[in-house]
Amino acid sequence: MFQLSEKQAQEIVDKMMQDIPYNINIMNDRGVIVGSGNHERIGTVHEAAVRALATGRRVEVLEDGKFEKKGTNEPIVIGDKRVGVIGISGEPDEVRPFCNIVRTTVSLLVEQKTALETLAHEENRRSAFIRMLLEHRGTYTQKIKKEAAGYGLDLALPTQVLYLTGFEAEKDASASLLRVPVFRLEEDVYLVLVQGEPASEKLAEALRHEQPRLRIAIGRPEESIADSFVQARSALHVQDALKPSANLIRFHEVSFLAGLAQVDIAPRLRATAKLAEHPDLLDTLRVFVEQDGNMSGSADRLNIHRNTLQYRLKRIAELTGRDPRKVLELFQLVHDLLAEYR
Fold first, then answer.
1. CB-based contact 54:140 (threshold 8 Å)
2. What DSSP element (H or E) covers 249?
3. pLDDT 10s digits, 261-301
4. Count of Cβ atoms closer than 10 Å to residue 109 Cβ
């Protein structure tokens, strides 16, 4: 059952007492004062609040006593739970309307916080579930299948992972994602699990239309969600290394390059690391690879003269010891680029 913290209760008391000329107490579900205009009373038991919690009805104190002050005490009820009590000191007829206002304010805050905590709990549960699936190897248990069914997944079917980066959750992409399970992996990284390959292509195109800056990597349909996820992630690494301008990449189109990225030829400094301080040369190399070594296409894409392109390629060769104009040396540069992003 939700409880207001002392900090929250005191903030409410301080705020309300700026407009209400009476002392306000907020008690928790045990009748202990957790917020008060009289700080000395915090942590003590309020007897009238205990009675209000026991009966579920308003308790009014008509005379000051040793442990009670004259005033009105209203239980705070959320659903069918008594979560606390609002008390205002003063003549009951005078403070009763104020007590109702404060009670309503606190009730709304409690309900709002409860709703937020419920959402956070569900998000944590979803996050734990998807991470478990991404780490799972072997046959799915009935327990996992049952939980997956709650998210609209049939683990008896092949599943294709769409790895989304740069996804803006606040934008209205619901029309595309309404019918498929979506899981948040990191701040702007989401996984979409699709069962049925044609559907994944249509979905990817719809998402690209809705969010042009979104980058999508697609794994193959696999019996194991973890396998498709690894494929999508490795395709994304290829995209980062060689095709940064592309916003859609499919694993089956770059599987050789993805595998190549995992090969350690020998423990050595990657040649492309020497281009880190020369972003124009690094971009030139990537575009040259993307254009299949075509000089005119590369120059047009970079918006530079062919002579400038020749100069940059020569500088790359000087810095790395690998000439991108030679097939085998370009292949080594491609490997080094891939290895940097794996």
1. no
2. strand 248-250
3. 776 655 556 778 888 889 999 999 999 998 989 999 999 99
4. 16
- Is residue 136 in some structural domain? no
By CB atoms closer than 10 A (0-12, 13-18, 19+), residue 33 is buried
Helix 295-302 vs helix 279-290: crossing angle, to nearest 10? 130
Q: Give the torsion through C-alpha atoms of 309, 315, 320, 324, to 10 deg.
A: 30
Q: In this prediction, what percent of the chain has a pLDDT beyond 90?
A: 35
pLDDT at 221 over 50: yes
- Residue 279, both tokens: 């972003």
CA 120/CA 73 separation, integer angstroms: 33
- Cα–Cα distance measured from residue 180 to residue 206, given in angstroms and rounded to the nearest whole number: 13
Q: 152 with 193: CB under 8 angstroms?
A: no
Residues sharing a CB contact under 8 Å with residue 178, sequence separation 6 or more, in sequence order: none
**DSSP SS3 for 130:** helix
My answer on whether 155 and 253 are in the same domain is yes
Please state whether beta strands 33-36 and 24-27 pair in parallel, antiparallel, or not at all (unpaired): antiparallel
- Burial degree of 296 (CB within 10 A; 0-12, 13-18, 19+): exposed
Residue 324: domain span: 271-340
pLDDT digits (tens, 9 = 90+) for 58-82: 999 888 877 678 899 999 887 778 8
CATH number, domain at 302?
Answer: 1.10.10.2840
Number of domains in the chain: 3
Q: 198, 226, 261: which is the final residue of a domain?
A: 261
CA 134 to centroid of chain Cα atoms: 16
Q: What length is written for the chain?
A: 342
Report d(CA 206, CA 200) in Å as an integer: 10
Helix axes 225-242, 251-261, angle to 10 degrees: 80
Q: Residue 50: CB partners within 8 Å, gap ≥ 6?
A: 30, 31
Structure tokens at 219: 């794994």
